[in-house]
């Protein structure tokens, strides 16, 4: 007994040190380290969210649709069709179609998924047979795409649009010095033409041709300093290729 | 033996002192442990709430999808589409040439993925170009311009 008491007496300051150390280690493992790990986890969650949002914004910026709204007139009524071409590689989901201030539901319904670089026609939107109509589409990523044929002006059985969507673009690779040109496109009885001149190496002439799809006979004529037909070809305009380009050389 | 032990009675005080010291260390240590643990938990909760609030701020995504003016009742319809993943509350302000023309500051709730028509009473003539400011309660702002059609 005396020996035990003597031992206790000798090592009394060590016990409290050990207890203190144990408590310190306990605090470290139950409070400090979990806090550090938790903060790291929360930071990872934040960084992950930021990355996902950046990706979402990037995809939103990449969305690219070509929209052409046009009416058809079956049985003395007007029905609106919307041809949509997805010009990006992403799959786009179309949420809504707006016609003026309403969001009508087409045949087949919406939303509609459109794979990358594909096209589809939304059909069967009932509209009055007379009036002006603005059409646009909204995607799930929050983009709004207006129809290139806005504003549609429908009058019973015929229609026209505010801005002609179809055009033929001619790039003339020419000799330097003043030269002027005339571009003519013919489809049946319709003729469209434009003129332009340049003193540089090349010249771009855009020819708006309204709403008629088909095969156009396109002629480019140099009108100054001398007259010469430098290009005569057929160019086809389709919904898939509404604005074809042609390259013409005039180096002589 | 007993006699010897009693003769060395001074040995009792160091033992008691040791026990008291251990008890004190344990008491202070446990209090400190408990305090640290609760502070740690509190810090975790507040830090998570702060980060969550910040994530909600940066996650907000909304756009003005369509605007139309009903001149018969002088009401501007502003369709707001929330294409983000968090619900939002918005106020709408309408300006004409820098001056506030009308506002709707009722914190209209727009759930995630929904389209909502927010109405603002404004008197504006056809042909005017107005600026629409949509501000969320998390201080994100979207602007839209609109030309009121001629009657």
Characterise this structure.
The complex is a heterodimer of chains A (252) and B (151). Chain A has 252 residues and is an alpha+beta fold. Chain A folds into three domains: 60 residues; 98 residues, Sandwich (Immunoglobulin-like); 84 residues, Immunoglobulin-like (Sandwich), CATH 2.60.40. In chain A, the strands form five sheets. In chain A, strands 4-3-7-8 form a four-stranded antiparallel sheet, with no helix packed on it. In chain A, strands 13-12-15-16 form a four-stranded antiparallel sheet, with no helix packed on it. Chain A has a three-stranded antiparallel sheet with strand order 1-2-5, with no helix packed on it. The longest helix of chain A is centred in the first third of the chain and has 51 residues. Chain A is elongated and about 130 Å long. The termini of chain A are far apart. Chain B is of the alpha+beta class and 151 residues long. Chain B has two domains: 57 residues; 87 residues, Sandwich (Immunoglobulin-like), CATH 2.60.40. Helix content of chain B is 36%, strand content 40%. Chain B is built from two helices and seven strands; from the N terminus they run ααβββββββ. In chain B, the strands form two sheets. A four-stranded antiparallel sheet of chain B has the order 4-3-6-7, with no helix packed on it. In chain B, a hairpin with a 4-residue loop joins strand 6 and strand 7. Chain B is rod-shaped, with a radius of gyration of 34 Å.
Distance between the termini of chain A: 124 Å
Measured distance between first and last alpha carbons of chain B? 119 Å
Helix content of chain B: 25-40%
Outline type of chain B = rod-shaped
Question: Largest interface, by Cβ-Cβ below 8 angstroms: which chains and how many residues each?
Answer: A-B, 39 and 41 residues
Number of helical stretches of at least 4 residues of chain A: 2
CA radius of gyration of chain B is: 34 Å
Mean pLDDT over all positions of chain A: 86
Strand count, sense and barrel status of the largest sheet of chain A are:
4 strands, antiparallel
CATH topology tier name of the largest domain in chain B: Immunoglobulin-like
